[in-house]
Amino acid sequence: MPPSHPGRILKKMYMEPLHLTNGVAADNLGITRKTLSMLLNEHQGISAEMALRLSKAFDTTPELWMNMQRNYDLWNAGQKVTLSKIKHFRKVKPLPPETVTREGKRFRSSSEPI
User: Boundaries of each HTH cro/C1-type domain copy (predicted)?
Assistant: First the structure.
């Protein structure tokens, strides 16, 4: 069963129980009604900025909204991508979790090169 689009969850589990109109919700979130409508009608996903807005408005975490979007996107991608046609590269040593890539360089923190 596919995960629900975050816009559907926003509408059914957050806005409808509070009897929020699109106009009131959009004004409170600091976005246009069109932007909110695109999200609620599943034509647009949750951005990091929107996740921050929603988390503040509904007393949740941004991670909740981003995880919903990630799960939705991954499920949909899995329906489109034929993984059986992709060949494995040789195994490499995985990067430690604290390592991030920035401008082609590896860093342990924002200022400390590896």
Answer: 26-65
